[in-house]
Amino acid sequence: MTLPVGETLFRVHSTSREGHGFNPGKGAPTRFAFFGDPVVPSLYAAETEQAAIAESLLHDVPLAGGRLVPSAYRDKCMSRLGTSRELRLASFMGLGLRRLGVSANQVTTTAAAHYNQTVLWAQAAHEAGFDGVAYMSRQCNSDRAYAFFGDRAADAFLVDPTYRWDFGDPLDGLPRLITFCSTFGVDVLVR
Question: 60: phi > 0 → left, psi -120 to 50 → alpha, else beta; which?
Answer without folding.
Answer: alpha
